[in-house]
Design a protein that fits this description.
The protein is α+β, with helices and mostly antiparallel strands and about 190 residues long. The protein has helices at about 15-25, 50-60, 95-110, 140-155; strands spanning about 5-10, 30, 40-45, 70-80, 85-90, 125-130, 160, 165-170, 175-185.
Length: about 190
């Protein structure tokens, strides 16, 4: 198992176009398939505890968060543009998502003994992974991201987060295949109030 918690994002033509353009670049860059785009909150890999405890940890925070609305803001590279390994588009108003990621992290630590994250959570949408930064045309990649970000902003693109999802990832020669295992509602059901 290669488990991770994430929130899904809606597709948008600007993100689809960015993926296509990045796919046309020289080898060394692998764009994220628009059908698989998400925001990862916690990667577990093969968890050191039974699957049922992972579910119990996520269930402990279910219903405790209001819906979270995110908008695109900025773009960049991790760790930086001089040594890029991941290209991304950032999201503003991510305090709610940061709180959710922190609560999930603490619950997984309490219930499963999974180590707490050392790095602060940064809400971002991975647009591509860089295998070889030496062949990357950074000015062109930045320009493509700027155009995509402009398209998202111009069309009022938002990510309305209502659910936390647990996925299993299987690596294949064509890229990862994700299987949704569980869905956890963030807010309390309005019908049950």
């Amino acid at each position: 198992m290669r488990l991770f918690f994430a929130v899904d994002i809606p597709r948008h033509p600007a993100l689809d176009a960015l993926s296509i353009e990045l796919g046309r670049m020289p080898k060394g860059l692998r764009p994220t398939d628009p059908l698989r785009q998400h925001i990862t909150l916690k990667f577990l890999g093969d968890p050191p505890c039974p699957f049922e405890k992972v579910i119990m940890a996520a269930s402990a925070i279910e219903g405790r968060f209001p819906d979270i609305v995110l908008s695109p803001l900025g773009f960049g590279a991790f760790p930086d543009w001089k040594r890029p390994s991941v290209l991304w588009i950032g999201l503003d108003k991510a305090e709610g998502l940061t709180s959710l990621a922190s609560a999930l992290d603490r619950s997984l630590n309490d219930v499963c003994g999974i180590a707490l994250e050392r790095r602060p959570f940064r809400a971002h949408l991975t647009t591509a992974r860089v295998k070889d930064g030496s062949v990357l045309d950074v000015p062109m990649v930045r320009d493509l991201h700027s155009k995509a970000l402009g398209g998202l902003v111009d069309h009022g693109y938002i990510v309305d987060v209502k659910e936390l999802l647990l996925y299993d990832s299987t690596l294949t020669s064509r890229g990862p295949v994700y299987e949704r295992l569980r869905t956890f509602r963030l807010g309390q059901d309005r019908d049950g109030e």
